[in-house]
User: Fold this.
Amino acid sequence: MKAANPYINFPGNAEEAFTFYKSVFGGEFSAFVRFRDFGNNAMGVPEGDLDKLAHVALPLGPGNILMATDVTPNMPFSLQNGNNFYIMLDAESAEALKLGLDSLFADGRPFNLLLKTSAGGHLEADGRAAGSRAVLRLRDVAAARATLKQELAALASAPPR
Assistant:
């Protein structure tokens, strides 16, 4: 792995925390995005939370980035111990990432979920749960869904054989 970067979910104080981190570690934010920046409130964030951070990133030396978001009430989960911290993996190649994920997947109880994003897209989440942890592999299935819809429509309009 080139890097394993921490990603923190905050209960609404990500900006305060990252301003502090920047004062301690130095550097400049490589990303600083408020929910309001998405326009038309496409993410369905309550009006009072539009100025909270959707994404912030602070590089900490070569290849290391500290990242975060504020969790808002419209999100499909509530913030609690166990879902307030993630690790974002940056691999040298897709093969290296697959090897690492396959090793993480080797133990645990499998599950598969179809998730609808706040933007209306769809993701497939394959995972393994082990204790209070889960390892996920996400795949955007929007193109596959569109192709399947076209094929079903073609079949439905085809003359009977």
